[in-house]
Amino acid sequence: MTKITNNLLDQINSLYPDISIIKGDVFYWSPSDQIVYYSELNNEVDQWSLLHEVGHAISEHRNFKSDFDLLLIEVEAWEQAKKISDRLSISIDEDHIQDCLDTYRDWLYLRSTCPTCTNTSLQIDSRTYSCINCNQSWNVTQSRQKRCYRKKVPAKTL
Ligand SMILES: [Zn+2]
Ligand SMILES: [Zn+2]
Q1: Pairing between strand 20-23 and 35-38?
Q2: Cα dihedral 10/15/19/20 (nearest 10)
Q3: How far is the CA of 136 from the centre of ligand 1 (A)?
Q4: For residue range 44-84, what is the model confidence (pLDDT) as tens digits?
Q5: Which ligand has an atom closest to residue 134 CA?
Q6: Pick from 119, 26, 108: which is nearest to 68 by CA?
Q7: What is the pTM of this model?
Q8: How far is the CA of 137 from the centre of ligand 2 (A)?
């Protein structure tokens, strides 16, 4: 582990002693384990990703009710990440945040557009949408693991 990695983890730990942060395969907040996992901390984007997941933890995000809720949760996690970054004197690139949120918006748009008439439709449950215009229903895959971390922002070595 690099010194920078230790510093950031120490800093987060002293600000939020109740949040456990453990190395894992991907950046991920597990509400059931109450643990933030990170895969690596080699550059700025990794740091932002970690702060984002800590943002989920601080917001106590648990069960996602709908795709739209997921987008709201993503926005909230980034808001928290920005607050943490201010306290740690890290600046998160706003373009990176918007790129990440755009992938969710695009994904939400694709899922909610009726395949028959292209009307924007309502989500019935976690796997089903239904079109009020033409009554077409369709299934979508589980949304939980949809993530964005490295899009568009070139990795900068610290
Ligand atoms: Zn997130
Ligand atoms: Zn339709």
Answers
A1: parallel
A2: 10
A3: 30
A4: 999 999 999 999 999 988 766 688 888 899 999 999 999 99
A5: 2
A6: 108
A7: 0.76
A8: 8
